[in-house]
């Protein structure tokens, strides 16, 4: 039987020749020709005002936290059901995290639950577009405006996905993307900050370049460069950008294949509802097929299903232990119960999803899941 991993990085074909070109250009540090090509691609295709590649989405989030000048004691509202980087970026600057629950329909943050959490210390809201499916951004942006808060989209999973026709990452003041090898478009490790608010453009370039105005110097805007504020080194080598650019040139192919696989999963598993919950895509959102997940009925059922699939050489994975329950934060959390977040922690299961997966693989996986639920393996009473 064919072993099916959970993820497999896809190489479109031009990655190594572009890397070679970068090497031959004689400049492989940051902001070379391929970095420029990637920036332009994103700015033109999605209308982000300014894009800056970073070495990871984690870095892009840290850069964002520096940009909005998070100070000790500032409060940041974010979902509990998310990757640690969403939280780390702000905790590193001394912020207090205020967790909001996920919705019942999907793991995105419950925007209706935000307003009661806002205090005069609140500085930012960080929506995470889980599985590339948009959070409800209109009411969220209305709240942000009303209370004068920054919105930083964690768009790590959200490349090429939309909210009411607007690209994710173009709505908040700032947005962070990931090109980690588990995402749709990859560079091994890699990320990007998208800047939609002009006031941040200059400082973002400076902080990303060790706190210097080196970028302005190279554009000839200043005649020498120096240290102008505290910063770090967030820019990737042009070798990484060369890899990424090869991927970007093939984004349509990548997306269409992933969507095909996603649809195949969804159609084959529809009959299992309501025994399992399938991904919910609101009318305002598109699906970028970043992930196919199911929500089981309980922890034991999920473990049994993982083991059952494993016994057939298929790797499925769960993730996100709610951050408010984490060893690091549970004592700091204000004690509110976040029921949906905990439910996804216990019950959500991600199925294999990668470009080279075949439709026949998906069909086989689905048949096995259906068989699991019709057999004694299922622990529904
Ligand atoms: C992948 C991911 C990140 C981190 O991305 P890196 O590029 O690995 O730093 C952050 N947030 C979410 C929601 C992610 O899925």
How much helicity do the residues have? Answer: 25-40%
Any guess at the CATH architecture of the largest domain? 3-Layer(aba) Sandwich
Supply the helix-strand structural class.
alpha/beta
Q: Strand tally, please?
A: 11
Rg value: 21 Å
* Order of neighbouring strands in the sheet with most strands: 1-9-8-5-4-2-3
> Low-confidence spans: pLDDT under 50, at least 5 residues?
none
Distance between the termini: 32 Å
Question: Strand count, sense and closure of the main sheet?
Answer: 7 strands, mixed
Task: Report the sheet-strand fraction.
Answer: 5-15%
Helix segment tally? 12
Q: What string gives the helices and strands in order?
A: HHEHEHEEHEEEEEHHHHEHHEH
Hetero groups in this structure are: pyridoxal-5'-phosphate
The CATH superfamily of the largest domain is identified as Type I PLP-dependent aspartate aminotransferase-like (Major domain)
- Overall average pLDDT: 96
- Predict the CATH topology of the largest domain: Aspartate Aminotransferase, domain 2
Specify the CATH class of the largest domain.
Alpha Beta
Characterize the overall form: globular
Oligomeric state of shown chains: single chain
Counted up, domains total 2
Question: Can you describe this structure?
Answer:
The protein is α/β, with parallel strands linked by helices and 381 residues long. 35% of the residues lie in helices and 12% in strands. It folds into two domains: 15-248, 3-Layer(aba) Sandwich (Aspartate Aminotransferase, domain 2), CATH 3.40.640; 251-380, Alpha-Beta Complex (Aspartate Aminotransferase, domain 1). It has a seven-stranded mixed β-sheet with strand order 1-9-8-5-4-2-3, with helices on both faces. Strands 6-7 form a two-stranded antiparallel sheet. The protein is globular. It starts with 14 loop residues before the first helix and ends in an 8-residue tail after the last helix. It binds pyridoxal-5'-phosphate (PLP).
């Amino acid at each position: 039987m064919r072993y099916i991993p959970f993820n497999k990085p896809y190489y479109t074909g031009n990655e190594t020749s572009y890397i070679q070109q970068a090497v031959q250009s004689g400049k492989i540090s940051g902001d070379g020709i391929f970095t420029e090509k990637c920036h332009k691609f994103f700015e033109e295709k999605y209308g982000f005002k300014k894009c800056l590649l970073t070495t990871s989405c984690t870095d892009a989030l840290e850069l964002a936290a520096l940009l909005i000048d998070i100070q000790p004691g500032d409060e940041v509202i974010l979902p509990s059901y998310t990757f640690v980087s969403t939280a780390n970026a702000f905790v590193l600057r001394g912020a207090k995290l205020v967790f909001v629950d996920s919705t019942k329909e999907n793991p995105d943050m419950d925007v209706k639950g935000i307003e009661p959490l806002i205090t005069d210390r609140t500085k930012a809201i960080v929506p995470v577009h889980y599985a590339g499916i948009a959070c409800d951004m209109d009411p969220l942006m209305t709240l942000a405006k009303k209370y004068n808060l920054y919105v930083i989209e964690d768009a790590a999973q959200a490349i090429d996905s939309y909210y009411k026709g607007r690209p994710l990452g173009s709505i908040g003041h700032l947005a962070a993307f990931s090109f980690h090898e588990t995402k749709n478009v990859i560079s091994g490790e890699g990320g990007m900050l998208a800047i939609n608010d002009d006031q941040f453009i200059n400082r973002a370039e400076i902080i990303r370049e060790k706190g210097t105005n080196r970028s302005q110097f190279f554009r000839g805007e200043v005649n020498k460069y120096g240290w102008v504020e505290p910063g770090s080194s967030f820019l990737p080598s042009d070798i990484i950008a060369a890899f990424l650019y090869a991927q970007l040139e093939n984004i349509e192919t990548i997306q269409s294949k992933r969507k095909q696989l996603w649809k195949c999963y969804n159609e084959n598993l529809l009959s299992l509802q309501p025994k399992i919950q399938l991904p919910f895509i609101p009318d305002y959102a598109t699906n970028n097929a970043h992930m196919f997940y199911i929500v089981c009925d309980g922890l034991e059922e999920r473990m049994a299903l993982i083991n059952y699939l494993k016994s057939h050489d298929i790797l499925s994975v769960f993730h996100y232990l709610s951050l408010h329950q984490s060893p690091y934060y549970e004592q700091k959390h204000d004690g509110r119960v976040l029921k949906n977040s905990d439910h996804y922690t216990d019950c959500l299961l991600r199925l294999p999803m990668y470009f080279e997966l075949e439709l026949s693989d998906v069909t086989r996986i689905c048949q096995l899941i259906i068989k699991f639920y019709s057999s004694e393996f299922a622990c529904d009473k």
